[in-house]
Amino acid sequence: MRNGLRFGLLGPPVLYAADGEFRSIGSGKMRALLAALLLEPGRIVSVDVLKDALWGGAPPASAQASLQNHVTRLRRLLDDPDRLRAVPPGYVLRVGEGELDVRVFEQHATAARTAHARRDWERALRESAAALALWRGTPLSGLPPETGGRAFVQRLEEARLLVLEWRYEAELQLAPTAARRDRLAPELAALTAEHPLREAFHRLLMLVLHRTGRQAEALAVHRDLRARLLEELGVEPGPAVREAHLEILRDRGDEAAAPDPTEDSERAQRGPAAAPADPGPPRPAQLPPPPAYFTGRADIRETLRLTLDPGRAAVGPGFPERSGPGVVVISGMAGVGKSALALHVAHGLRERFPDGQLYVNLHGATPGMTPLTSGQALTALLRDLGAEPRRIPEHPDAAAALLRSMLAPTRTLMVLDDAAHAAQVRPLLPAGAGCAVIVTSRSPLTVLDGVHRFPLAPLSDEESAALLRAVSGRRDGLDGGHPLVELTGRLPLALRVVAARLAARRALTPDVLAGQLAATEGRLHHLEYDDLSVRRSLAVAHDALRASDREADRDAAFALCRIGALDLPTYGARLLARLTDTDERRAEAALDRLVDVALLEETAYGRYTPHDLVRDFAREIAGAAEGPGSTPADNSSAVTERALRWYTGVAGRSLEAILEPGLDREDRSRPTTSQPPPHSADVAATPPFHSAKEAFAWGDLELENVVTLVERSAGSSPYVPLLVRLLNPYVQRSGRVAELEILQRAALGAARRLGDEAAEAYALGDLAGLHFMTGRASDALALNDEALAIWRRLGVLSWVRRGLNNRGMLLEGLGRYAESGEALLQSLEFSRELGDPHMEAITYSHLGNLYEHTDPRAAIDHHKRSLAIGDTVRDVIIRHSAHCNIGYAHLTLGEPAAAVPHFEESLRILGSHGDWHGESQTRLGLVRALRGVGDWERAVGECDLLLCRADGRADRYTGGLARHQRGLLLRTRGDTEAAYAQWELALEALEETDSPVVGELRELLAER
Predict the structure, then answer these.
(1) Hey, is 179 helix, strand or coil?
(2) CA dist 421 to 373, 443, 460, 599, 872, Å?
(3) How far apart are CA 896 and CA 902, in angstroms?
(4) Nearest-5° angle of CA 993, CA 894, CA 808?
(5) Cα angle vertex 144, ends 138, 147, to 5°?
(6) pLDDT value, residue 174
(7) Cα separation of 812 and 823, whole Å?
């Protein structure tokens, strides 16, 4: 087992030789240095941290030189001196997979936990034994206190106890030999003596004694445990111990029904109950201390106070008098500050509840703790209210009724902290109107009736900075804009960890700490300090889901792993179903469970996103899933490819819904040499969209994810050029110019890398279209000509025709009219040869735009021919474009009144079909026409609408054209200064384009 190990912390720190033998380490300082480096394996440990580990808070003047000497000596002991390198601001010790006993122990422990949850007893025994064999004693033993690591040791010792439980459980389930059973009893007896309140060991000892025929001793173990729990904690044993007790009693037959003679003897000796000599228990005042540095949440605090105050009848109509107790649920993700808020508010209300304040930590999500049952919590509450332990009913319903009776006449405040679910809380709620209850939970507990819910979000920037300043004691530079605020996700727990680090090490500056957080691949290892840990807080919910017997819980744990592997901005059920090989119903249930345990947030209906620190945690568990024993389907590249396949399949259906039937749709769907073979089957397996509107809505939801995937995968996946080509009609017609440029450049690079000429030509042509939309006609022409050359070489006539058509349109915009006419006439001839009326109509439209420069009446005739074809084939885009172009021809003729109805008809035809370029050009023409007829008010309204939509799409080109028109409108009203301001903004947006408006803007600004 030890041949692969090189370092050990599970005992005194040691080095292992290649043969597994220990290598001697010199002084205690050397062991402390090794331990400090191994506590952060593979990560930079600063010089300050190492000095603290070796000398505590008082390093000698020679500490720097001494540290360097210790580092040099430690290097000589290592099998490879290059393992330990100086990396500013400290040192890093390279530790490979399987070389540190702690990591190997945790791997075996994780495997044992999984096997235990799945009832795979043989593997659970094997993995547990392997984990325990690594222990040589107490972790970090033999080191001075200043070395630190107390929380690290506590975590490992708790993990070892859990592994021991799983090992003994597995042995018991595998029916050990009689000799082994005989040895189990004394081993477990020793463990129960060492851990007298750990119920799992007592349960195992009871079962071992029972199965070796020692029932009386087994019952005695139960009786002693129950008495100890009642005396010291005021709680009954948990369900697992009770089930073991019942098993023993059932096997005893009739004897089990007889009363315990010991209890009868004790009862007889006690005689009749005597009146208590003392005046009764004191009024409960159990609230833990209030948080020392509570920050923010002012509005929520006030609303909570008004909701809980039993005398709130006079507050006002917003808070009507209540007839029952005030119950609030404060919910949110791990570390968001639920308990701190609850205690802060509870302390502020103490005087309003003179009969006492009760506090129970239900441990619903406490690392290393089993959640309390409602029966255990009831017993604790009744004992605290003065009930005799032996008079507390064992049946939960009776105990709940007694609790309500005792609280009914009182004004008592109860805090139920860290609830796991509604069933844990419901029996604990009082009924009297004078009582109030604050429940904290990661879940909003929506099945609890009659409660007020307060979901918590992370703090604001300024609140986060205030918390950092208060806890750390630092004042300078820690404002809401400091990087630490963003890097901690504004999560109070993470902020407290960072602030504690700053408070503990005065030499550590906020900027240096921010640099460490930003430079690391995962932030979570920096967000642990003493007993504070963001990672452990998040892991509780995930581990509980993974070990659950419920399908939805296990699906949720797997879904979070897939979310970490894919790491997209948002998620929906359809995508997750594909990633997890389930149906949409199960995927949606999994997402809802993740929301319920605050590992995801539903930001819009059906759209889910994790907090930044949950993203880090999800990436960690996804990385762990790629370890030994994983399948190729588990790695992140395979998950990414699966997502790309799904998006490409749906994009194929999007193309069918958005593009009108014809050669353009057929050409874009035609396979190229790099197209993955499964694509056709993926499209066939994807349900079609019912309308173009539905396809556009899907694109609006998923475009951000697509851009993320395409940027990440452009150098590796053949799906990239195909996905971008199929999605281009949606992105282009939506006017998402920023996303369009990212996608098309990625597609072009991927196509060239794959050596797929057709895919390259598609990308070149689509990129040319983007340049045209943004006013860069010269660049668009060069790209279009590159694509045209490829299509000619490949002999694809339909795309040669389209390239000529685009070439003619671009040349016309650049004022090269003769060349434009030649290209357009060639395109028209090819369209007729191909029998494609759709492209023939588009070419007539471009010819009309060309003739508008010399004969606007002839231009209108060409646009009417285009309109006639559009009416025949019932093509929305052609009809809308024809009316728009006729409107522009009338503007050229100086007939704005004739232009207005054509622009209006163009917009009416377009409706909600989605074509941003067409819509923006039409609205621009309508603004000009309305200005021409003197309808100033309406022109301003249309111009503002156009500008708003352009800015929403980051379309600077259209925004510049709109601001040009707005300036002209302002000048008409005499507001020349405002007009000049608009023209300056317009020129800034258009200066790098080929638009003729640039020259006009310069002339207008020159008049100033």
Answers:
(1) helix
(2) 11, 7, 28, 15, 63
(3) 10
(4) 40
(5) 90
(6) 84
(7) 10
* Relative orientation angle of helices 298-308 and 338-348, to the nearest 10 degrees: 50
Q: pLDDT value at position 579?
A: 94
Rounded to whole angstroms, the maximal C-alpha distance in the chain is 120
What does the pLDDT read at residue 3?
Answer: 58
| Digit-coded pLDDT (tens) for 450-489 | 899 999 999 999 999 999 999 999 887 899 999 999 999 9
Q: Where are the alpha helices (DSSP H) in 328-482?
A: 338-348, 374-384, 396-407, 422-425, 461-472
Predicted confidence at residue 254, as pLDDT, reads: 40
Q: Are 692 and 914 in contact (CB under 8 A)?
A: yes
In the structure encoding, which two tokens stand for residue 439, read together? 């429940």
Please, what is the angle between helix 636-658 and helix 551-566, to 10°?
A: 90
Query: What sign does the dihedral 874-875-880-883 (CA atoms) show?
Result: negative
Q: What is the pLDDT of residue 632?
A: 59
Low-confidence ranges of the chain (pLDDT < 50): 1, 254-280, 313-319
Q: Identify the residue whose tokens are 């017997």.
A: 549
Dihedrals φ, ψ of 219, to 5°? -65, -35
Of residues 874, 917, 875, 921, the one with CA closest to residue 902: 921
Could you give phi then psi for residue 398, rounded to 5 degrees?
-70, -40
Nearest residue to 590 via CA among 556, 561, 563, 557:
556
Phi, psi of 795 (to 5 degrees): 70, 30
Contact 477, 453 (CB under 8 A): no
Please list the alpha-helical segments (H only) found in 893-1006: 896-910, 916-933, 936-952, 956-972, 976-990, 997-1006
Tens digit of each residue's pLDDT (9 = 90 or more) over 343-398: 999 999 999 999 999 999 999 888 767 889 999 999 999 988 888 877 788 888 99
Burial 276-312 (b: 16+ CB within 10 A, else e): eeeeeeeebeebeeebebbbbbeebbebbeebbbbeb
d(CA 666, CA 647) in angstroms, rounded, equals: 19
Order the strands of the 413-419 sheet from edge to edge: 357-361, 413-419, 436-441, 326-331, 452-455
Q: How far apart are CA 369 and CA 198, in angstroms?
A: 11
Cβ-based burial of 771 (10 A; exposed 0-12, middle 13-18, buried ≥19) = buried
Residue 613: exposure state from Cβ atoms within 10 A (0-12, 13-18, ≥19) = buried
Q: What is the DSSP letter of 175?
A: -
Please report, as a single letter, which amino acid is at residue 54.
L
Q: What is the pLDDT of residue 472?
A: 92
The three-class DSSP label of residue 744 is: helix
Q: What is this structure's pTM?
A: 0.69
Q: Which two tokens stand for residue 486?
A: 């963003």
Residue 799, H or E segment: helix 797-813
Tokens of 933: 């007829």
**Model confidence over 296-322: pLDDT tens digits?**
999 899 999 999 988 764 344 444 556
Around Cβ 66, how many Cβ atoms within 10 Å?
A: 16
pLDDT at 630: 54
Contact by Cβ (8 Å): 425, 416: yes
What the block records as the tokens of 597 is 């345990």
- Supply the pLDDT for residue 146: 62
CA angle (340, 341, 347) in 5-degree steps: 90
What would the DSSP string read from start to end of 851-912?
A: HTTT-HHHHHHHHHHHHHHHHHHT-HHHHHHHHHHHHHHHHHTT-HHHHHHHHHHHHHHHTT
Q: Do residues 546 and 554 touch, judged by C-beta distance below 8 A?
A: yes
Cβ-based burial of 609 (10 A; exposed 0-12, middle 13-18, buried ≥19): middle
Own/partner contacts of 462-466, CB < 8 Å, gap of 24 or more, are 463/295, 463/296, 463/297, 463/490, 464/488, 464/490, 464/495, 466/295, 466/296
C-alpha 945/C-alpha 933 separation (Å) is 19
Q: Are 808 and 775 in contact (CB under 8 A)?
A: no
Residue 746: which of 729, 722, 776 has the closest Cα? 722
